[in-house]
Write a structure and sequence with these properties.
By secondary structure, the chain is mostly beta strands. The protein has strands at about 10, 20, 25-30, 35-40, 45-55, 60-70, 75-80, 95, 100-105. It has one domain (about 10-105): Metal Binding Protein, Guanine Nucleotide Exchange Factor, Chain A. It has no helices and 9 strands. Strand 1 (about 10) and strand 2 form a beta hairpin. The radius of gyration is 14 Å and the shape is globular. This is Protein yippee-like. It holds the Pfam family Yippee-Mis18.
């Protein structure tokens, strides 16, 4: 019997605060302000800012900025609401920019 693959924990690159678990990683194919970004179904130890309407690559959304709960670094955003049926799967998901993360196995 083979051993299961160990999934990483994703940490804030600035202060190493744990932010997300590997099992919650949905996609690595997102783009943030600083480049590549990851979508997670859950995030922890974060502060969620006020809801704002923002135009993104795939349309208009209501989002909230997401900051590290320890150091305050802006990490990405949370999708709160979408106006397009095909994009509804994003609601409640977190997008965190790759440059803001480090990982630990």
């Amino acid at each position: 019997m083979g051993e299961g693959k160990t999934l990483p924990t994703y940490l804030c690159r600035n202060c190493e605060n744990p932010l997300a678990l590997g099992e919650d990683l949905i996609s690595k194919k997102f783009v943030g302000a600083s480049g590549p970004a990851f979508m997670f179904s859950h995030a922890m130890n974060v502060v969620i800012g006020p809801k704002i309407e923002r135009k993104l690559i795939t349309g208009s959304y209501v989002v909230a900025d997401v900051m590290c709960g320890n150091c305050g670094e802006k990490l990405g955003w949370k999708y709160v609401e979408t106006f397009h049926l095909k994009q509804r799967y994003k609601e409640g998901m977190f997008v965190i920019e790759r440059l803001k993360l480090t990982k630990k196995l």
